[in-house]
Amino acid sequence: MIISDLLQQQGARMRVFDMGRRIQVMDLDLFRAVENMQSPWPSPYLKHAWLGMMSWHPDKPGQHGIWFIKLPLDERNLLQAAARDAFVAFCLKQAHNNPEARGEAPYSYKPDASRMAYFHAMALQELGAGNSRYYATTRAYLGGDIGWDSWQQLGLQGLAEVVAAVDRDHNETLLVNAIPHLPTVPLHALLGFMENIQPTQALTSALNDRLATLIGEGATSADLAAFARAISQSRNITQRRQLLQAMLAHPASRTVELLAAMASRCWLDLDGDVLVAYLEALARNDQGEQAFNALVADLMTLPAMRERMLAAFTRQDLSPLLRQAFDGLLVLVRGGMK
Prior knowledge:
Blueprint: H1 3-9, E1 13-18, E2 24-26, H2 28-35, E3 48-56, E4 64-72, H3 81-95, H4 113-127, H5 134-142, H6 156-164, H7 171-178, H8 184-194, H9 201-217, H10 221-231, H11 237-248, H12 256-265, H13 272-283, H14 289-300, H15 305-313, H16 320-337
């Protein structure tokens, strides 16, 4: 039995969220195919499928179940059946009030506060529930009504709900007008939530202008990493790739903080010259060979990235430093195969 069948037998409806590289609703037919090991997990992260699952009964409003689990994947990004079955067995025992089903479900994990806030914002939308009490306060702040330095009274939940509802209540206009003025803390929180949406041209331009200002003032690696995440799904593909290349030309591009953000969120744009620029920066990273190997290995698990990476490593214009880093990785891989 798989998770989808179990909940269906119980008369429950469900939503599945991919909680790995971004937070996104997952198509239920695709999830069923993944559960049956007919399809690979589409965006593996650290060799796991990171799931947020919500179930509810239509005739029992206000009652719903939520699970956060990370299931290990094999080398083909298929679910490992033993892990899937262990979770299903736990749920069956729980449904029958078996004492063995007390405590945490197997493979469960707790998202950090930011990801929990965005999951909750999306769950409210899926359930057709109202916004939290933080929503109105956050909109007032973003409208400049209570002063830009009054961000301490905001909650992550309010920012998450505004971003999740970017296409409603004129929230996009609020964000476009607020981005030039936000202090660092609320700006970084906002940018983190924006990795889960597809910014329009207006939002992308606002991000571009604020980033240019920060670079002129001396942007930190944390600034660049936050903006890389925010633009990762911009609808203007050309502009977002230009922004990534500008970041890779910045002195902070050797920091693992920025390079890890690009690998985990911006992989769709790591191709051709952009990928080579990324790999050149990665070869110069501030934590050395171990970080290079780890980030390349993570990228290689993503769809189409293996072919892109191999094409990049066969180019003749690579620096000696990148060639050396790649040769070191090959030695490590061959040693592990013995």
